[in-house]
Amino acid sequence: MILFLVAFLIFLTDWISKIWVRQNLSPGIAKPLIEDFFYLTRVENSGFFFGLVSLKQSLSIFANLLAILCLIILGRRISRKSLWGRIGLGLMVGGAGANFWDRLGDGQVTDFLDFRLWPVFNLADVAVCGGLAIFIWAFLILTRRDASDSF
Q1: 26 φ/ψ angles, rounded to the nearest 5 degrees
Q2: Which residue from 11, 25, 31, 118 lies 20 to 30 Å from 38 (Cα-Cα)?
């Protein structure tokens, strides 16, 4: 249940933030929040992995859907023993789902968080990366705990 609650909250937060960005920021115009460090810059991105990988629209939608299904099917088995594993998985599913939803329209994802040292990204990207880190950490802790229990 926690997996789907976290996924829904991430999806909703990302969706609302993208609506706000589309209504309030013109494409390509940077609004400084912290001068020389953090900007809001609306970018429409058709690629994957922060726009670093480019795919055709139909292929990107299929790849996004496949990733979500794999996360749900494989991840649920791995995360049964760990609350943090389920939270990490929920973050990844919610982020991937939010970007999938965004892609369904015109094949692009709205990005807007701009630190100038990395490609522009969005809240869904943060959730996917953060969720992966939490999931890996939970898996390593669980693996270590299971190994120590076997002695």
Answers
A1: -80, 145
A2: 11
Domain ranges of the chain: 2-34+42-140
User: Binning pLDDT at 50, 70 and 90, where does residue 150 land?
Assistant: very low
Q: Is the pLDDT of residue 124 over 50?
A: yes
User: Contact 46/107 with Cβ under 8 angstroms?
Assistant: yes
- For residues 125 and 100, give the distance between their C-alpha atoms in angstroms, rounded to a whole number: 11
Write out the catalytic residue numbers: 111, 125
- Tokens in use for 128? 């996917």
Band (pLDDT 50/70/90 cuts) for residue 60 is low
Top mean pLDDT of 20-29, 42-51, 65-74 is at 20-29
**For the chain, first and last CA: distance in Å?**
33
Q: What is the DSSP string of 43-91?
A: EEE-EETTTTEE--HHHHHHHHHHHHHHHHHHHHHHGGG-HHHHHHHHH
